[in-house]
Design brief:
The strands form 4 sheets. The protein has an 8-stranded antiparallel β-sheet with strand order 1-9-6-11-5-4-2-3. Strands 8-7-10 form a 3-stranded antiparallel β-sheet, with no helix packed on it. Strands 16-12-17 form a 3-stranded antiparallel β-sheet. By secondary structure, it is of the alpha+beta class. It contains 12 helices and 17 strands. The radius of gyration is 25 Å and the shape is globular. It starts with 15 loop residues before the first helix and ends with a strand. It comes from Pseudogulbenkiania ferrooxidans EGD-HP2.
Length: 433
């Protein structure tokens, strides 16, 4: 977690009220106007102040420390040193950032004078404070433009490399990006329209490292500490910098209808296809005898009324509930391992801007509860939905008051079990009374 410097607190820099004031509906209306409804690149200088950028830089270091100590090579963590990608990351992870270090201190210890670059995907899974701050910032934007069909995910870029190790490239189709630049050094993004980026015969078009001939035809966008850069989907681009800096790229994920159908089919398979290790044999039946397929089809655990289109619609509904419960983030946070003591006077509060959502489960008498993108199936009981509504309403509730909402001899046991789940999946905060 973030450790404030002496005489510095997070409370007056990244509070919901402060962020809502900075990034209100008027700010996002101006954003949409300047980007022509998210269709052209643009730099915004009126974004984060220096203090906010510094705190967020520390939070990024905390993410790297957690990954280095716990998760290691998961989540697309990639490292380049002097222009070459490093495959064995054990030594690098052992040099993870320490709580007392700022970005310059850590880089000096871990890399010395070497040029390096780090890319970490799914950064929204980690630092609760950083993810929450960005969710507050983006909340008005989502109300204006709608929820991206596959949500929001963010990537951490960190380094002092001369240029993006990927060369001139395009990102996955349908991913537009808002880049929060945390400094301390500036960064320049070069962009090309398809017609402006003309490659020579035989020249590699994607991940092109032959940079110099193409820079004159690019549009240049330079942004510094605390500034914000937007880039629409499907643009050739290249990031360049000669100073140390950190950036958080928040991707708005919309894909083609075909790609989205493939994603929904994947989710249907994950939900309804049972695993099996039984090996099939060569089929000696006559050509029109397809009985051998029945072994595979028997692995499908489908509802009686579940045709494929209905299953895909349900998969999308499930995805929507996950996204709306998680501030738009595609990935849920890493669950908590600690179990706080819950006394009658302990205080329970939801962590805004996230909201818990519930709907009836397919099984009678059960409820599906969505907490920060995680779906939990619970046995329903009178008062459960009322508890969710009260918590979503904000403020702090005593555990005893929540128990009093349930008319059941096992009310205390059920409420403690529920609150334990909500805390584990980061839907609530628990504080002493």
């Amino acid at each position: 977690m973030y450790h404030p410097r002496e005489n510095e607190t997070i409370d007056d820099s990244l509070t919901p009220d402060r962020l809502r004031q900075q990034f209100d509906a008027d700010w996002w209306t101006g954003f949409l106007a300047r980007t022509e409804q998210m269709s052209r690149p643009c730099v915004f200088t009126d974004a984060l102040d220096a203090r906010q950028a510094r705190i967020m830089r520390r939070q990024v270091l905390d993410i790297l420390a957690e990954v280095g100590q716990v998760h290691q090579a998961k989540y697309g963590y990639r490292l380049w040193l002097d222009g070459r990608q490093v495959d064995d990351l054990d030594e690098h992870f052992s040099l993870h950032p320490q709580p007392h270090e700022d970005i310059e201190d850590w880089v000096r210890r871990a890399f010395g004078e070497r040029k390096f670059g780090i890319i970490l995907n799914r950064g929204e899974k980690f630092s609760p404070g950083l993810s929450q701050a960005i969710a507050h910032i983006l909340e008005p934007a989502l109300k204006m433009i709608g929820m991206p069909t596959e949500g929001i995910l963010f990537t951490v870029f960190l380094g002092n490399y001369d240029m993006t190790p990927l060369g001139i490239h395009k990102d996955s189709p349908g991913k537009s990006v808002i880049h929060f630049h945390l400094g301390p050094g500036p960064k320049t993004m070069y962009t090309w329209g398809d017609d402006d980026y003309v490659t020579a015969p035989g020249e590699k078009r994607l991940n092109n490292m032959n940079i110099a001939p193409h820079l004159p035809s690019a549009v240049r966008h330079t942004f510094g500490e605390g500034q914000l850069y937007f880039m629409p989907e499907n643009m050739f681009h290249l990031g360049m910098q000669d100073q140390l800096s950190i950036g958080i790229a928040c991707w708005f994920y919309n894909r083609s209808d075909h790609d989205f159908a493939c994603e929904l089919l994947h989710r249907v398979r994950e939900a309804h296809l049972r695993p099996s290790g039984i090996m099939l044999k060569a089929d000696r039946r006559p050509i029109d005898d397809i009985g051998a397929v029945e072994s595979a089809l028997s692995l499908l655990a489908l509802p009686s009324d579940g045709d494929l289109r209905a299953l895909m619609r349900n998969a999308y509904r499930d995805l929507r509930y996950s996204l709306f419960s998680n501030g738009g983030y595609r990935n849920s946070p890493v669950p908590r391992e600690d179990k706080p003591a819950m006394h009658a006077d302990s205080r329970i509060a939801i962590e805004p801007p996230y909201r818990m959502l519930c709907r009836p489960a397919p099984e009678a008498g059960r409820l599906e509860l969505y907490v920060r993108g995680t779906k939990i199936s619970l046995g329903n009981f009178p008062g459960l939905e009322g508890i969710v509504d009260r918590l979503n309403g904000g403020g702090k509730l005593a555990v005893a008051d929540i128990v009093a909402m349930v008319d059941d001899p096992l009310a205390e046991k059920k409420v403690h079990y529920l609150l334990g789940l909500l805390h584990r999946y980061r839907g609530i905060a628990v504080t002493p009374g």
